[in-house]
What we know:
Largest sheet: 5 strands, mixed, barrel
Number of helices: 6
CATH architecture of the largest domain: Up-down Bundle
Distance between the termini: 41 Å
Mean pLDDT: 91
Strand content: 15-25%
Amino acid sequence: xxxxxxxxxxxxxxxxxxxxxxxxxxxxxxxxxxxxxxxxxxxxxxxxxxxxxxxxxxxxxxxxxxxxxxxxxxxxxxxxxxxxxxxxxxxxxxxxxxxxxxxxxxxxxxxxxxxxxxxxxxxxxxxxxxxxxxxxxxxxxxxxxxxxxxxxxxxxxxxxxxxxxxxxxxxxxxxxxxxxxxxxxxxxxxxxxxxxxxxxxxxxxxxxxxxxxxxxxxxxxxxx
Length: 224
């Protein structure tokens, strides 16, 4: 059987037998598990591509049997996160909840882009962006950049998770969550690409939207 080549991010590794590891990678379609034979040997050429949080390309002999693992042929390192930096550890612990709960392959491209731009200033904003994308894929948020009732994108003044944005003319007066203008902007710009999002929002309000989102998730899913 020919090996397939697929790009992925290492999200889990576990030592197995004397020199092997069980690896899980997040890919554009799903999470794939495989065994990396001999990878713990000092001279293994695949070691650098299998470190946790590494983004790489992997040649894998896929198994189609439930009780048999796929097998790594070769791994190619592309990029990884530096766990010597505290913000990387925080970011990784936060986003790890996504694939531990319910992984959507559509989130993969956003993760890859995040690898190229993450820093100590924007890591929490990137987490919020990814979290909002995940919530959308779960069907828990919708309509982030126009009024649910009239489809107008002007004078947006409130947000409800089940309906989305509301303009000042259709705003629900009974509010479970109250949003300041700057937090509404974070929700609004999350509907755009990540670079636009980061260029438009006020980072000072990111912790506030984090509190709201995590409170909502705690009450409405099994994420936390």
